[in-house]
Amino acid sequence: MAYLTLKDINKIYPNGYHAVHNFNLEIEKGEFIVFVGPSGCGKSTTLRMIAGLEDISNGEFLINGTRANEMGPREREVAMVFQSYALYPQMTVFDNIAFGLTLQGVDEDVIEEKVKNTARILGLTDYLDRLPRALSGGQRQRVAIGRAIIRKVGVFLMDEPLSNLDAKQRVTMRSEIAQIHRETGATTIYVTHDQTEAMTLADRIVVMKDGYVQQIGTPYELYYKPVNVFVAGFIGEPPMNFVKGVVKGGKIAFGPNQLDVTKKLGAKAAQYEGKEIVFGFRPEAIVLGEQEDSYVMEAQVELTEMLGDNTNIYITAGEEKAILKVDPHDTPEIDAAIKFSVPVKEVYLFDGETENVIE
To answer: For residues 349 and 279, is the Cβ–Cβ distance under 8 A?
Structure first.
């Protein structure tokens, strides 16, 4: 039996707005689950329903097989870390971390031992006497996490905890959250709009759009086996390139290039004759020049971005545009005409009407 089960969960507000549609998920004890998607997709609303901060309109939420819809947040034994640090400014780091235990009337010696152990895990031992205003953003977020994990609850819920940090702090905190999860072994549900956070932290990712679950899977599955155009375009940086076209004679046009979809679909391509399909390929899947068992295309370089370990090349082919990722030593000149190849096995084809992947 799964530790947490969400069965056909819906959230409908009094004004009729349907924020979450038929959300289904089973979470095992100790898993790190990430909800990801653009703003307004329903991921934070779902997290708040799990926390007991939002009522569930329809469906059933189970903890260890027991219905929890009517339980309050305390009964559910969850701890939540919010986007804002929500620290008490007049309290020291020690008192902020200890606050929940103090309210419960835990013995002072026990509190001191638990706070020191938590501070050691989070690298806050030298800051216990400081006030929040004397800490960096990353240190404040660690205090907020410490206040959650000291309670030894069954589930940690994190709602975009790194969004207020700068890029360097986010990288550092990502690794620290992963380490905390390894040390505590707690079941964690984490909400973010940042697909890099999702890919680096999650055991499994739930991709959402407009209140609907698009796909649930491991980072590997979402990257290499996306089920539709949205997931394929959301996971990966830079995003997947898409070329839309109507199949004519088994081919679609990418500027001057004729892409023979029978290479990928074989006889199944006949089913799409006269219909629109979407041809997708990742920027990093390409090889400059011509290569066997590939789609070879011609394009013009519009712009280049040197990023150190790679260069992004922005290209045009007729009216179509795409991004290629190449070795910086192979960067072509702006306005240069280039040929590049995409191995057939690296191409994704999607139904133009449903936007679902064509198997």
So the answer is: yes
Distance CA 176, CA 118 (A): 13
Around Cβ 287, how many Cβ atoms within 10 Å? 17
d(CA 281, CA 27): 32
Q: At 69, list the tokens.
A: 């819809």
357 domain-assigned: no
The pLDDT score that the predictor gives to residue 171 is 86
Residue 202: the pLDDT is: 97
| Tokens found for residue 31 | 């898993």
The range of the structural domain enclosing residue 173 comes to 4-234
- What is the pLDDT, as a whole number, of residue 248? 96
* Predicted pLDDT at 1: 67
**In the 3-class helix/strand/coil scheme, how is 115-142 assigned residue by residue?**
HHHHHHHHCCHHHCCCCHHHCCHHHHHH
* d(C-alpha 210, C-alpha 317), whole Å: 32
Task: With respect to residue 321, please indicate whether it lies within any of the assigned structural domains.
Answer: yes
List, for residues 236-289, the tens digit of each pLDDT value: 999 999 999 999 999 999 999 999 999 999 999 999 999 999 999 999 999 999
CA angle 29, 32, 33 (to 5 degrees): 105
3-state SS class at 280: strand
Stretches in the chain below the pLDDT threshold 50: none
Helix (H, G, I), strand (E, B) or coil at 161: coil
Same domain for 139 and 217? Answer: yes
- Residue 81 has a pLDDT of 85
pLDDT at 105: 87
CB 230 within 8 A of CB 36: no
Please answer whether residues 281 and 240 qualify as being in contact, where contact means their C-beta atoms are separated by less than 8 angstroms.
yes
Please tell me whether residues 114 and 230 are part of one structural domain: yes
β-strand 18-27 against 320-326: which pairing, if any?
A: unpaired
